[in-house]
Structure formats: C-alpha cells, structure tokens
C-alpha cells in the first residue's frame, strides 16, 4: 500500500512542495510534456516521463513513495507523448522528429516503429481480442495504426484537423483536433469512425480522457480546453442533461472581480471511483466527482504550471509534473525554476463522498 507522506518529502531542491507530496528524484531538465504509469501486468510500479530535453526517463516507485531512476532513452527532438505496451516490456515515445520509437526496457534499445509528415502528438497501444497495434496522431492531420512487425501503417485515417489530444480505452478511441473537432472511433474488428462532433467548449481542445460507467465499460470522455473549463460528454447519454461543462483552474480575480483563466493541461479518471483529477496552468490540481458535480479536493498552488498528470493502474498514486507550459510565452520562462514530478497517495482523496 502506498502509504501516507513521511517527513522526508521536504527536499532541498528549488521546487517548493506546498502539498507535502513525494518528490521524484532526478527529474527531467526541461518542460515535462507527458507521463504514464506501468500497466497492471507488472508487479512493481514504474513511471515514465517525456520532456522537451528530448528524453524519456523511467523510475521505479516503491510502496513507501521512494523513487529509483532506472533508465533513460533519447530522441532527436522533444518528446510529446509516451505509452506502455500491455505487457509492460516496452515503451512508445512520440516526438517532434515526426517519428515514434519503441523502447525495449530489457535491452535498453529503441527502434523506430512509426512515421508521420509532421510532429507526432499522441501515441496509444490498442489491445483488441483479434489484433494489437499502435495508434499515432499527428499534426499532419492523420491518425495511423501500426503493426510493429511491418514498416508501413496497416491503416491511415484522415482527420479534419491537426491531432491535439487523444485517448484509447478499448473498444473506444477519441481524438480532439484543432478547430475544436472531436472524432470518436470504435475499435472492434478494425478501427473505424462512428461519430464526428464539435467540442461544447468555445476554445481550443487541450486534453481528453475516457471514463467508464458502473459496469467498467467506456462510456464517455472528459475534455479540457485552454479556457479553464472541462466538458463531460457521454457517447450515448441516457438524458441530454447528462452532458455538462464546468469551470476550473481560474483565480478569484483581482480588481473589479476580473478572473484570471488558465488552460486545463491534463485530465485523468480514477479506475475504481470514477472520479477525476484536473491540472492547470496556474499550478494547481483538483479532484472532482462528476456524478455529484462537486469538487472533492483542491490543492495548494505550486509556483509554476502543472503541465501533465497520471494515475497508476489501481488508483493509489497520482503523479503531477511541475514545469513551465509556455502558456505565457517565452518571455515568462524562468530557467532558474527547476522541473519537478510529485507523487501523491490519492485513493482516499478521490473517493466520492458518502451520500453523493
């Protein structure tokens, strides 16, 4: 059991830790773009993180919250997304160099397995009963599916615009594009589009995550925008009112009640409770109960944006990355502020309140 934070969580680094969480040792040296925990097929917990220093790092996370750096693999340009293969032996790394590499953890070797005509923004492993493949989404406005044994994609699907975010939970895949587009795909038999829609949010898609119903089947998705708002959308809502949006990652305003509004940089759904966490540009995370439409827990603010987040497979550990997300442009980047990843025991914090 991932225990409660001990006093050892206070560190001597330059990154403040107002939430008293476990700090991951040897963090990336540039903005952290993506993170993923190892699948349930592995007995230990591993965390991988990709960053703008062109590297993907892997740590083992011990039950007491201690982290051990295990290995690192580089790409020629910044890393935009990472994903695990279902048996936990390999990691996929998608990047600005227009390729996806497969990193074999046992041999510590990587090889290219996918290619696009523009940077690859997302990568996801699909394990279906009758096939397995890698799904990649790019700014070249295509979604491609790859059998790792062949150099050419087994399928290419044209997107209405550049791929900005995506998620996969078999048999559902969902992609958010530029121009506020959303495309849903069913993956049974073979991947095919079954619904194209427009985001209910007025501003650019930023992050997307699939949630499950009480029977643990994929039922819908949460979509975050650059304008401090999240949409909860069911694939087949029983009632149109089941779909709703809520405001988040906003400050309570200064003079004249003006609100500062920040991007939602990440959404993850709890695998047991069905609740969700969001992280934002203003440097906070929050836990929410979408069914009761309430906030479960806000965090103390970090002194820098939270750029991405992840939950481990059993919902015990919440990871969040503190690094500049470039939302205020180059002139607001402070190179003296280090990047950090924090781990928080979250199983109790993310439980729905009784009676809700």
Automatic annotation (TrEMBL):
Protein name: mRNA export factor
UniProt xrefs under SMART domains: WD40
The WD repeat ranges on this chain: 25-62, 72-113, 134-156
Species this protein is from: Diaphorina citri (Asian citrus psyllid)
Record family assignment: Belongs to the WD repeat rae1 family.
Lineage: Eukaryota, Metazoa, Ecdysozoa, Arthropoda, Hexapoda
Compartments it resides in: Cytoplasm; Nucleus
Chain spans, region Disordered: 1-22
PROSITE patterns (UniProt xref): WD_REPEATS_1, WD_REPEATS_2, WD_REPEATS_REGION
Keyword line: Cell cycle, Cell division, Cytoplasm, Mitosis, Nucleus, Repeat, Transport, WD repeat
One term under GO cellular component: nuclear envelope
InterPro entries (UniProt xref): WD40/YVTN_repeat-like_dom_sf, WD40_PAC1, WD40_repeat_CS, WD40_repeat_dom_sf, WD40_rpt
Gene Ontology terms describing biological process: cell division
Record field: compositional bias (Low complexity): 8-19
